[in-house]
Design goal:
Length: about 260
């Protein structure tokens, strides 16, 4: 695969828990034969081990600072991202993930963080912001500030039937390309849950998850689309925010067994 989103948390763990280097290494060992890149979502609480260990294994890194509505956490995240980048562990820097989608920060605040990171990083490290593909159309100033467009594309969350899902993802990608006006677009998340409740025409099942994975990977390889698949392992804590499907986005289950 081009890239894989790194799932950090084991059963009973959740964001905010401090994760050990040993746990990160154990999980990296499992995924390393399958991916060229790995994506992390935060630079604190053990997430900072992800790019360091990835580099040991020769895996490239898209490293994210997790921004939200807590100024103190935001400060730690931004400082963590700058530190990791200046130490040579970051190939692409992502300043925030779906912050505008969640309304955690306004455009002005987010722009401040993006320009601050760009200022502090070596010029050869591209800096971007991750959000749903359409947000780059809605927020042209954010798009202009980014060196690279980091777009999340989920046909599942738009109630798309599996039969039309690849076509729909191609349309999402095309919209992000259009918004970027010549800038590189990377699909930072896409995936399909293997269990859970239907979302209108979008049906989670092991077979549908496998078909979507294969279709998206074939397209990624054939058309040279840089794509990070979501996600490596099932994570039980995600049931809260996303409903029952939240726990079933992994290629591996929560016991680190490959599903297919």
């Amino acid at each position: 695969m081009h890239g894989l989103c790194f799932s950090l948390y084991e059963d009973g763990q959740r964001p905010g828990d401090i994760i050990t280097e040993e746990q990160v290494r154990r999980r990296m060992e499992i995924i390393k034969p399958y991916t060229k890149w790995v994506r992390s979502f935060s630079c604190t609480d053990g997430n900072e081990f992800i790019p360091k260990i990835a580099k040991e294994y020769g895996i490239k890194t898209l490293v994210g600072a997790w921004l939200g509505d807590d100024p103190e956490i935001n400060e730690r995240e931004i400082e963590g991202l700058i530190k990791l980048a200046n130490e040579g562990y970051v190939d692409i820097a992502a300043v925030g993930n779906e912050v505008l989608y969640r309304n955690d920060l306004n455009e002005e605040e987010l722009l401040g963080f993006i320009y601050r990171v760009k200022e502090a990083l070596p010029k050869d490290i591209p800096v971007g912001y991750v959000d749903a593909y359409y947000e780059f159309t809605v927020h042209p100033r954010i798009t202009d500030a980014c060196d690279v467009i980091l777009a999340n594309c989920y046909p599942y969350w738009e109630s798309c039937h599996l039969d039309y899902s690849l076509l729909h993802m191609k349309q999402m990608y095309a919209q992000a390309l259009d918004a970027g006006r010549g800038k590189k677009v990377i699909i930072t998340e896409t995936g399909w849950p293997s269990e859970g409740t239907n979302l209108n025409d979008a049906c989670p099942s092991p077979e549908n998850a496998m078909k979507y994975f294969i279709n998206s990977q074939v397209w990624s390889a054939k058309d040279d689309i840089e794509m990070f698949y979501f996600s490596s392992f099932d994570e039980s804590w995600k049931v809260g925010p996303e409903g029952d499907v939240g726990a079933y986005w992994g290629l591996w289950d929560k016991n680190k067994k490959l599903k297919f």
